[in-house]
Specification:
Layout lengths: L6 E5 L4 H5 L2 H10 L4 E7 L4 H4 L6 E5 L4 H15 L3 E4 L4 H7 L6 E4 L4 H10 L10 H6 L20 H13 L8 E5 L11 H13 L3 E5 L5 H13 L7 E3 L6 H8 L4 E5 L2 H8 L4 E5 L15 E5 L22 H4 L3 H13 L1
Parallel strand pairs: 1-2, 1-4, 2-3, 4-5, 6-7, 6-9, 7-8, 9-10, 10-11
Helix pairs in contact: 4-5, 8-11, 9-10, 9-14
C-alpha cells in the first residue's frame, strides 16, 4: 500500500446523482487499498445512499442546520483523525474549506471542466476533449496510484430489512405476474429538466393500453405533478389497478428497492435516473437543456437517451432553470411520446 493512502477522506456532500456516481471511485479505491481507512463526508439527507456501502469505513454526516459553526466543528473533527489523503470530488466552497489545512499530504481534486462548460453554455463552443462521465472524472486524479475504473457500473447498497419491507409492500399492489412494469420518475430539481407532465401522462396511457403497469416515483414535493399525471390517465380510461403511485411514500433506498420490481425506468436527467442505473434497471433518459458533454448521461449498457439534437440554443444550462430562456421549450416539447415509448420497447425487446 502507498504509505500516503492509509487514511483517506472523500468529500461529496450532495446530491443524489453525484453521490451515486461516486460509487465506482469508492469501489476501485477499496480494491486497490483493501486495508485502508476510507471515510466519506456527505450531507445528512443523502447519507443513506452510502451508509451501507461495505467499501466505506465510516460515513461522516454533515448537517447544514448548524450553519458555518457546524462546518467549523466538522473540520476540527476531520483534522483530529489525521488523514494522509483527501479526495475532493465536490470542489465547492464547503469542500474547499473542509479539505484545507487538515494535515493531509495528498489532496486530489476533481476537474469539473468549468471552462469548457462555460464556453459550451455561453458561446456554444465545444471545447470538451470527448465524453468523460462524471464517474470517470472522480477517478481521474488517482490514476498515478494505479487506480482506474473497473467498468462494473454504479452501485447502491440496500440492507435486507428494507428489501424485505419493500417486497411486502409490492405484494399489496397485486400486480399480475410477468407484467411489464414501467417506472416513471417524472421530476427533477429544476423545471426545464422535466419532460412535460402531459407527455408523461400520455406515455402512461400508452403503456397501460398495451397491458403494462405504471409506477410513479418522486418525493412529497412531486405529489401534485403525480396527481395531474394520474388524473389524465384515468380520464382516458386507464384502470386504477394499472397505476401504482409511490410519490412521497418511499425514502431513497426504498425507492431503489422498489425499482427492482420494474421492467424499465423512464426518467429525466435526475438523481433517480442514476439510482435506476445503480439497480441495473434498463433506463430511458430524457435530456432537455443538458447535454452528454456535462458527464451525466446514464451509465451502463441497458439505457437509451432521448434528446432534441440540433437546437442552436442547447445547452442553455448545466443545471436547468425555472423556465426556458427562449420561451419555446423545444428541447423538451419536441420529444414525442412515440419516441419515448419506442425506446422503452427497444430496451425490453433487446
Amino acid at each position: 500500500m502507498h504509505s500516503l493512502l492509509n487514511k483517506t477522506l472523500i468529500l461529496r456532500l450532495s446530491s443524489i446523482g453525484d453521490i451515486i456516481l461516486a460509487s465506482p471511485l469508492i469501489r476501485v479505491l477499496r480494491k486497490r487499498f483493501p486495508e485502508a481507512r476510507i471515510d466519506f463526508v456527505v450531507k445528512t439527507e443523502f447519507a443513506e445512499l452510502v451508509r451501507y456501502n461495505p467499501y466505506i469505513t465510516s460515513v461522516i454526516e454533515f448537517s447544514t442546520s448548524g450553519g458555518f459553526a457546524g462546518l467549523v466543528s466538522l473540520k476540527r473533527k476531520l483534522r483530529s483523525v489525521g488523514y494522509d489523503s483527501v479526495i475532493d470530488i465536490h470542489n465547492n466552497f464547503r469542500s474547499v474549506y473542509l479539505r484545507s489545512f487538515i494535515g493531509a499530504d495528498i489532496c486530489a481534486v476533481v476537474d469539473k471542466r468549468l471552462w469548457q462548460r462555460f464556453m459550451l453554455v455561453r458561446f456554444k463552443l465545444n471545447r470538451y476533449n470527448g465524453f468523460v462521465s462524471v464517474a470517470d472524472r472522480y477517478i481521474e486524479p488517482l490514476k498515478s496510484f494505479g487506480i482506474e475504473n473497473d467498468g462494473e457500473g454504479l452501485e447502491v447498497f440496500i440492507p435486507p430489512s428494507i428489501l424485505t419491507r419493500v417486497g411486502e409492500l409490492w405484494k399489496t399492489y397485486r400486480v399480475a405476474p410477468n407484467s411489464r412494469v414501467i417506472a416513471i420518475a417524472h421530476s427533477a430539481k429544476h423545471l426545464t429538466k422535466m419532460w412535460p407532465a402531459e407527455q408523461y401522462a400520455k406515455l402512461g396511457i400508452e403503456v397501460c393500453r398495451n397491458g403494462g403497469v405504471v409506477v410513479l416515483f418522486g418525493s412529497q414535493t412531486d405529489a401534485a405533478r403525480s396527481k395531474l399525471i394520474i388524473e389524465q390517465m384515468y380520464a382516458q380510461g386507464v384502470p386504477s389497478s394499472h397505476v401504482v403511485n409511490c410519490t412521497g411514500q418511499l425514502d431513497l433506498l426504498e425507492t431503489a428497492a422498489f425499482m427492482d420490481y420494474c421492467s424499465a425506468v423512464v426518467a429525466n436527467d435526475s438523481g433517480l435516473m442514476h439510482l435506476a442505473s445503480a439497480r441495473n434497471r434498463p433506463v430511458v433518459g430524457i435530456f432537455g437543456p443538458t447535454v452528454k458533454e456535462f458527464g451525466f448521461f446514464p451509465i451502463g449498457g441497458k439505457n437509451r437517451v432521448i434528446e432534441r439534437a440540433g437546437l442552436e440554443c442547447r445547452p442553455c444550462s448545466h443545471l436547468g432553470g425555472p423556465e426556458c430562456p427562449k420561451k419555446h421549450f423545444r428541447c423538451m416539447n419536441d420529444i414525442s411520446v412515440d419516441q419515448v415509448y419506442q425506446s422503452v420497447q427497444d430496451l425490453l425487446s433487446s
